[in-house]
């Protein structure tokens, strides 16, 4: 096992992720168990597939996939597609994607087909660093042979498109708190608020600075920021600002709210995307928000092997 492989993944081990590196890791054994599970005559052994793929971190899953190919001369993702179906198939295939590829895939899915999932675009762009998004853009180009910036432009318009593109290229610029407060406050004068300062400031400062700015704006205007956004902006841009402000103030609470959705792609997307980074924080926020643990809530919404896989990613009650 090459220790450099693990170092190449900038993951936050410690106490924030629910899925950690499996300590007694033997990729040959895992690959052979998966092969046997897939070759069961009556039906594939989903329990074994779930047990292995949800109890290894992403870097280890990549090694298992490579080992599986060396042993069987077959691609693991292709083999899973043949053996499984429905939501479990989708979830296990998502777990096999490297992290950057998975974020690129989620962005592509949010723009695929009729209509655009604006909130998922905002969720990803608001909760990832500028460096991560640069890397995701590169992977997106490799995977889909399309430029992510051009795709976002083509799927959205107006101030909302400007907000997305500013987030995609975000970098921290040092600002002066009082000056930023004045700029945002001045933008609200007149019949129609000026979106420009909101886009420029909220996509180019660090979260500590922005929290001071937003608190200062609330003191100056006598209104909560979400009230200001609701009153002064409309449509997709209003939605975008709402998401961005929540992610600045407390991303864990925002993601916990998203997890109350009944839509499988949203729940699954957040859990897979955050399980090695900060799902414990999101779980705690979910419990505080709803009075129910995420582990219990999943059992009311999902069933079968798909539920078992989600519970394994969630890990435990709070």
Structure, described:
With 318 residues, the protein is mainly alpha-helical. The protein is 70% helix and 0% strand. It has 21 helices and no strands. It has helices at residues 3-7, 27-38, 46-53, 58-72, 76-83, 86-96, 99-111, 118-127, 130-144, 148-155, 158-168, 177-187, 195-202, 207-221, 225-232, 235-249, 251-259, 264-274, 279-290, 294-301, 304-314. The protein is elongated, with a radius of gyration of 21 Å. Residues 1-14 have low confidence and may be disordered.
Summarize the structure.
The chain has 318 residues and is mainly α.
Chain-averaged pLDDT: 93
Question: Into which percent range does the helicity of residues fall?
Answer: over 70%
Quaternary structure of the protein: single chain
**Strand residues, percent:** under 5%
Task: Give the CA-based shape.
Answer: elongated
Spell out the helices and strands N to C.
Answer: HHHHHHHHHHHHHHHHHHHHH
Alpha-beta content class: mainly alpha
Number of strands: 0
Number of helices: 21
- Our measurement of the CA-to-CA distance between the termini, rounded to an integer number of angstroms, reads 34 Å
How would a textbook summarize the main sheet?
A: none
What descriptive keywords fit this protein?
21 helices
Topology summary:
Elements: H1 3-7, H2 27-38, H3 46-53, H4 58-72, H5 76-83, H6 86-96, H7 99-111, H8 118-127, H9 130-144, H10 148-155, H11 158-168, H12 177-187, H13 195-202, H14 207-221, H15 225-232, H16 235-249, H17 251-259, H18 264-274, H19 279-290, H20 294-301, H21 304-314
Helix pairs in contact: 2-3, 2-4, 3-21, 5-6, 6-21, 7-8, 7-9, 8-16, 10-11, 11-13, 11-16, 12-13, 12-14, 15-16, 16-17, 17-19, 20-21
